[in-house]
């Protein structure tokens, strides 16, 4: 995660799976962080295929990313402990590759 106050960049890697790249706007403190957590979903293939947007909530010790399809249906979420200087909320667009 990297934050430039009103613009943030996220990358989530699933071990032996795909990588999510997302770009977001929101209100946050500048900085970055290392995140280690888990992705939860009922349908990993659908998460990979249909994710178009996401929402994040971050504190210095916790980060959550919610993944949505084009109809704003929740597809899954990433929950992480964090070592971060970023505090903020926001959302944006992204996809898995």
CA-based gyration radius: 12 Å
Overall structural domain count: 1
Q: Provide the succession of SSEs.
A: EEEEHEEEE
The CATH superfamily is Rhodococcus equi virulence-associated protein
Report the CATH C-level class.
Mainly Beta
For the sheet with most strands, the description reads:
8 strands, antiparallel, barrel
Short description:
By secondary structure, the chain is mainly β.
Kindly describe this structure.
The structure is a single chain. The protein has 97 residues and is mostly beta strands. The protein has one domain: Beta Barrel (Lipocalin), CATH 2.40.128. It has one helix at 44-50; strands at 2-3, 7-13, 19-28, 31-41, 53-59, 62-68, 74-84, 88-96. An 8-stranded antiparallel β-barrel has the order 1-2-3-8-5-6-7-4.
Chart the SSEs and their pairings.
Layout: E1 2-3, E2 7-13, E3 19-28, E4 31-41, H1 44-50, E5 53-59, E6 62-68, E7 74-84, E8 88-96
List keywords for this structure.
globular, eight-stranded antiparallel beta barrel, 1 helix, Lipocalin, mainly beta
């Amino acid at each position: 995660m990297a934050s430039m106050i009103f613009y943030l960049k996220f990358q989530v890697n699933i071990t032996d799976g795909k990588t999510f790249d997302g770009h977001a706007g929101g209100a946050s403190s500048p900085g970055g962080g290392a995140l280690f957590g888990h992705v939860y979903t009922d349908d990993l293939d659908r998460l990979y295929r249909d994710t178009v947007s996401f929402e994040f909530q971050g504190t210095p010790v916790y980060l959550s990313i919610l993944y949505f399809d084009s109809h704003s249906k929740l597809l899954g979420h990433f929950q992480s402990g964090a070592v971060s200087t970023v505090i903020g909320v926001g959302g944006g667009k992204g996809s898995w590759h």
